[in-house]
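Exam revision sheet. Question 4 asks you to relate a sequence to its structure. Input first:
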Amino acid sequence: MVDPNNLGPSLETPSLTVWYVSFAIAGVCITLVVILVAIILTMARRIAVQATSITEALEQSRVNTLPMWDVATVNEGLTGIVGSAQAARGVLEERL
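Answer key, C-alpha cells:
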C-alpha cells in the first residue's frame, strides 16, 4: 500500500553528528601525527649531537695514536744502533 502522507524525500535538516564525529577523529589523527613527528625530530637531534661528540672523540683518538706509526721507524733505528754497538763491543773485546 502506498502511504498518501509520504510525499517523497524528507526535507528535514540532516543530522550533523556524523560530521562532528569525523572532524573529531581527524583532529585526533592529526594530533597524533604531530606528536610522532615531534618525537622523531627530537630523537634525530639527539642522534646528531651524539654523532658530533663521537666524531670528536674519534678524531682525538686518531691524533693520540699517530705516534704509533713511528714505532717501526724507531725500531729500525734502534736495531741499527744495537748492531753497531755489538760490532764495536766485538772489536773492543778482540783488542783486549
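Marking note for examiners. The chain has one domain: 17-95.
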